[in-house]
Specification:
Structural class: mainly alpha
Helix content: 40-55%
Distance between the termini: 32 Å
Oligomer: single chain
Radius of gyration: 13 Å
Length: 77
């Protein structure tokens, strides 16, 4: 019932930019938590630790570097 963040269906899958919006990361959290065998709450904490504000907290939408997030998740093993 939740709206899919537009970037998840419109952005190129080339992998040139490793960032996604925080909204896109949170949208995928249930699926990723299940695949990783961790709770959604634990994943939310890890996502929060990887948030970046490229133009400062008042200027841009928060983003998450997917590579760094995956590395953080790998360290949880």
């Amino acid at each position: 019932g939740e709206s899919v963040p537009a970037e998840l269906v419109t952005v190129s899958g080339s992998g040139l930019d490793p960032h996604i919006t925080l909204a896109a990361a949170k949208f995928q959290a249930p699926r990723v938590a299940k695949a990783r065998g961790i709770s959604e709450a634990e994943l939310e904490k890890i996502i929060a630790s990887q948030v970046e504000y490229p133009g400062g907290v008042m200027r841009n939408e928060p983003i998450v570097n997917v590579l760094m997030l995956n590395l953080a998740l790998d360290r949880k093993r």
